Amino acid sequence: MERLQADVCVVGAGFAGLAAARRLVQCGLEVAVLEARDRVGGRVWNRALPDGTVVSAGGTWLGKGQDRMFQLCKELGLEVYPQYKRGAHILRLDGVNHRYRGGIPSVGPGTLIALGLALVRLNLMARRLPADAPWRARGARARDARTLGQWLSGPLNVPSATARTLLGSAMNLLFCTDPAEVSLLGALTLARGGGGFNYYTDSRRTETHLVDGGAPELARRMAEHLGERVHLSSPVQQIAHDGTGVKVVSTSLVVRAQRVIVAAPPVLAGRICFDPPLPAPCSHLLQRVPPGAIIRVHTAYPQPFWREQHLSGQTLAPQSAVQLTIDQTPRSGQPGVLSSYAFSAGALRIARLDPAERREVWLNALAERFGPQARRPTQYLETDWSAQQWSLGGMIGHFPPGTLTNYGSALREPVGRIHWASTESATQMHGLMEGAVRSGERAAHEVLTRLGAR
C-alpha cells in the first residue's frame, strides 16, 4: 500500500471536506484528502443525460444568506444565474390542479391562517434554541421525545386538515422522510440554523440561483486547486488514534497525520473502525442520524414547453408519489429540463417497481400537471440516492426522537485528534451545501487552533 505523511488527513471530498482542506492548505499545512467515490462532490453530482446535457443530480440551488457558496463561486470563476420563476406554480390536491403565484397556494383563508399560525409557533420554538447546543434548551427533552409528525397532527397546533396535509408534505420533502420519524427538537434545530421554517419551505429563499455548469463544478474546481492531495476511490476503513497522531487506513493507501477531519455523512462515518473505539455518546450518535429516501428524475424536452403555458415548472402534489417538480432548464434555455422528486415512503414504494413501470408511473404523474406533452420526454434520467453506496439516502441525515438530548453533545466535539464536519453538524444553514462548507471551515479552524497555526 502507498504510504503518505501529512499534517492533516481529511476523510471525504464533499463540500465539507473540500472546504476544510482548502482552508488548511491556504494556511500552509500539508493535507491528504481520501474520498471513497471515484469523483469529488459527495452529495452533489453532475450527471449526463443521454444526449450529453449535464444536469446536477444532488445539491443544486443556492439561496439567500448562502454567502460562502456565492463567495466560493466568485473566487473560482463560476457564474450564477437566477432560477426561472415566471408564471404560475401548481398545487395538485384531490385530483385538481390549483394555479397560484408567490410563495403561498390559494387554499382558502382558513387554511392560510392555520398554516401561518403553525409556522409562527414552530419558528418561535426554534428561535429560542441555543444554535450550538439545542439539547440544552428549556423543555428540550420533552420536545426530543415527541416527533414532528405528532406536533403537526395535533388539531390545536394545525386545526385545518388541508394545512396539515401541506405542512406534512413540506416537512416530508425537507427531511426526505416521514415527519413521524423526526424528533420535534431535531426539526427545530434545522430551522434554527436558517432563521426559521419559512426559509427552508420557501423556494423564493432557498432556490434563487443556479451555478452555471452545476454546483458539482464548484466542487471539482475546489478539488483541482488541491491537486494531487485528493485521492479518489479510497474508502477509509480504519482510523487509529493516540497521543502522538493518527493513522488513516483506506483500501489503497495509509496516511499518517497529526489530526484527521472526518467529513462524511454520519451514517457513513459510523461504519469506519476506530481504534481505540469512539466514546459511547459519539459512537451512538453516528448510528442515529440516518438519511431519508429520495429518487430524483430529470426529463428533457426540446423546449421548456410549460413556460408557453405560463407555468413556472414548480409543482407540489402531496398525494402523489412524485410530489415535487421544478424547472432546471440550463442557462441557454435548451433543452427544457424538469427535475422531479419522490421522497420518503413514496420513493421506497416506487423504487420497488421494475424500471419500465416506474418510468410510466412517473411520466403519468408529470402529465397530470403539465399535460400529455410531459409524457414524451426526449431524455429520462433517474438518480436513486438510497442506492448510492457512499450516500445511502439523501439529502441530509435527520435526528430521530431522543438523539439530540442523549447524544447531541458529541455532534461537533473532537475526540482527541479526530474532528467532525458535515452539513448535519452545521449550526448555520444546516442541511444545505452552505452548511457543509461552513462545517468544514469550522473543523479546519479547530485543527489550526490545536496545531497553533494561523
As residue ranges, the low-confidence spans are none
Distinct helical segment count: 17
Number of DSSP-assigned strands: 22
* End-to-end gap: 33 Å
The shape, in one word, is globular
Strand percent estimate: 15-25%
| Rg over CA atoms | 22 Å
The mean pLDDT is 96
Q: Spatial order of the strands in the main sheet?
A: 9-8-18-19-20-17-21
The biggest beta sheet reads:
7 strands, mixed
Structural class: alpha/beta
What would the keywords be for this entry?
454 residues; alpha/beta; 7-stranded mixed beta sheet
Task: Summarize the structure in words.
This protein has helices spanning about 15-25, 65-75, 110-125, 140-145, 150-155, 160-175, 185-195, 195-200, 205, 215-225, 265-270, 280-285, 305-310, 345-350, 355-370, 405, 435-450; strands at about 1-5, 10, 30-35, 45-50, 55, 60, 80, 90-95, 95-100, 210, 230, 235-240, 245-250, 255, 260, 275, 295-300, 310-315, 325, 335-345, 380-385, 420. It has about 450 residues and is of the alpha/beta class. The strands form 5 sheets. Strands 9-8-18-19-20-17-21 form a 7-stranded mixed β-sheet. A 5-stranded mixed β-sheet has the order 1-14-13-12-16, with no helix packed on it. It has a 5-stranded parallel β-sheet with strand order 11-3-2-15-22, covered by helices on one side. Helix 1 (about 15-25) packs parallel to helix 10, helix 1 packs parallel to helix 17 (about 435-450) and helix 3 crosses helix 7 (about 185-195). The longest helix has 19 residues, at about 110-125.
